[in-house]
Amino acid sequence: MGLNTVNTFDLSGRVAIVTGSNTGLGAGMAVALAAAGCDIVGVSRAGPGDTASRIAATGRRFADVRADLASIAPVDDIVRAAVEAFGRIDVLVNNAGIIRRDDALEFSIDDWDAVMDVNLKSLFFLSQAAARQFVKQGDGGKIINVASMLSFQGGIRVASYTASKSGVLGLTRLLANEWAAQGINVNAIAPGYMATANTAALRDDAQRNDEILGRIPANRWGAPEDLAGPVVFLASSASDYVHGHTLAVDGGWLAR
Ligand code: NAP
């Protein structure tokens, strides 16, 4: 690692895969990584939306990969497409995720499986596919999982989401334990309450909105841009000795 602290955040020439890069937090993280120098492989179901033009505006390259992470069938193809596009991969951001809400007494098998498949099963097997590529390349890599406040807390009416995001925190530690010695950093970002489609239902409910805001010391919902610094840090050599950590980016929510 160089002695110039600022340059350790430089991602020039690196290649990052970001799942769910078409919107919300994934779009924010993809644009931030590009602004720091990464070429971006954006994984989406229906196309990249304005993420492709936002990446182009940073001067970096963008590869559009279509995949449905409701199953693990596409994971090897995602890594293969990234390597075909840009020759290698350096960073994987496992951001794609869904939430289903219902009382635990009523919670359906479908709402359980759908959330666990995208948020946990595909995250694990895409990490495995990426790590196999990192090992083949021989010079390490960075995996950044997207966890949640419900990696630390129980939540309410979101059984499969809490199970999946608590699982993300555990898997982040397990994968760090297994892969740290090979120069692969596995860490997670736990966003607090961020204004995206994922939380529209909460923000539309005036009572829940007030309850949540009243507990955030920063006194505002987070924005995708709030993840820019943390994701660049965890993707860069500035974090080379950070392994298995879940970094809350929550306006102070967990401090309350
Ligand atoms: P969002 O706006 O709903 O975006 C979710 C992303 O995941 C979209 O790109 C979506 O693609 C993608 N995705 C969902 N199912 C997929 C599938 N089967 N295959 C491929 N991609 C799929 O929500 P967000 O808030 O940005 O959420 C991003 C991540 O942050 C999630 O893991 C979420 O749990 C986590 N998170 C969010 C908050 C928050 O407050 N917003 C807090 C903590 C954690 P489509 O557009 O095709 O559906």
From TrEMBL:
Its EC number is 1.1.1.127. It comes from the Bacteria. One of its GO terms (molecular function) is 2-dehydro-3-deoxy-D-gluconate 5-dehydrogenase activity. Coiled coil: none annotated. Gene3D superfamilies: NAD(P)-binding Rossmann-like Domain (3.40.50.720). Pfam families: adh_short_C2. Keywords: Oxidoreductase. InterPro entries: 2-deoxy-D-gluc_3_DH, NAD(P)-bd_dom_sf, Sc_DH/Rdtase_CS, SDR_fam. Belongs to the short-chain dehydrogenases/reductases (SDR) family. PANTHER family: 2-DEHYDRO-3-DEOXY-D-GLUCONATE 5-DEHYDROGENASE, SHORT-CHAIN DEHYDROGENASES/REDUCTASES FAMILY MEMBER. This is 2-dehydro-3-deoxy-D-gluconate 5-dehydrogenase KduD. It comes from Paraburkholderia dilworthii. The lineage of its organism: Bacteria, Pseudomonadati, Pseudomonadota, Betaproteobacteria, Burkholderiales.
